[in-house]
Hints:
Layout: H1 20-29, E1 31-35, E2 40-42, E3 51-56, E4 58-64, E5 70-77, E6 81-82, H2 84-89, E7 96-99, E8 103-108, H3 110-119, H4 121-147, H5 150-165, E9 173-175, H6 181-188, H7 192-204, E10 208-210, E11 215-217, H8 220-231
Amino acid sequence: MSKEFKASLEGVRLLSGLSREERENVERQCSWKRYRAEEQIIDRDSDTRDVFFVVSGKVRIVNYSLSGREVTLGDVAAGGHFGELAALDGEPRSASVMALEDTVVAALAPEHFLRVIQAHPESTLFILQSLSRIVRRSTERIMDLSTLGANNRVHAELLRLAREAAAKGGNQATLTPIPVHSDIASRVSTTRETVARVLSELTREGIVKREKEALRVLDIDALESLVVEVRGE
């Protein structure tokens, strides 16, 4: 293990209910590894069962269509975790995971992970809440893919990002860094050209504004109206 980073799980939210001694015991059970940007961490359908804690950096959970198109399922930043599905049900991995930037992860064997959640109800609740969010996002995504055109799927993704970035009750949001067109396209199953066109249209309508290092959503309500109108909510 490199001496360039501290082998600590102090910032991992799943383990926040553990005492310092308990957390340090989990740290000793982990294997630690550094990955470079765009390096694969997990291959879909592999038979590994470890749970991974993101110590630093950020990773992306992806799947690939038969034609090779990348479909982004989500990003996990420092303090998060991934890989729990295979540890819980013993089935093969359901997605691939790659490092978005230089990343340090700690891998915990499934038997140790199961002992942690069995001994700590707060960790179990955290896992259940995380899985619930995954189910909700997946349901929304299925509905959007089934009912929305490509343009409106881009609207829906921008709305999601804006809501996450906005102050509570605010009608504006600043997205930094600027969302990459290919990333948005991957999330909503469309092309970079479509994303660029939609952003240009929203800019002309005064709903978004591109700045040097940020994309400002000037009217979240207007953006929401575009989505709600098509969804029929």
